[in-house]
Amino acid sequence: ILMNYGGIYLDNDVFVLNPLTEFLKFEMTIAWDEGESIGNQILIASKNARFLKLWLKSYKYYDSSRWYYNAGQLPTSSILESNPHLVNRVKERFGVSCCGVINYIFEKNIDLKRWQYNPPEEIYEKDVWLLNTTFGQMARSVLKI
């Protein structure tokens, strides 16, 4: 769809906090933190973006045994490291850099048995207005629209 029409792709777990319109002026915008592979949770592209064409072609080297190889590692090393001009590089703002923090919190601070066997309580719309949590803030921002 992006190749044929252009537009914005979002993973189904992305919560957009600010407008993405500032990125529409670029041929292709992608998350790419310093020293890391690209992140593909948010892709903003013009129709026939050159990077998308090359990225799609790189799938002829598909390797199902390596997680994130074709989605991030290969296009970064084989395309973007030598052609960074093909994309508008967004560092830190698209949520890629927080993954290490999330993994640390999850690995160090969650009692898995409690998490696995005690599902969260149901939250109703009326309760969201009182939640003093990040989720509460996110939910209220959506409900205010």
Automatic annotation (TrEMBL):
InterPro entries recorded = Nucleotide-diphossugar_trans
Transmembrane regions:
none
Q: Which residues form a coiled coil?
A: none
Give the highest taxon in the source lineage. Eukaryota
* UniProt xrefs under SUPFAM superfamilies: Nucleotide-diphospho-sugar transferases
Q: What is this protein called?
A: Alpha-1,4-N-acetylglucosaminyltransferase
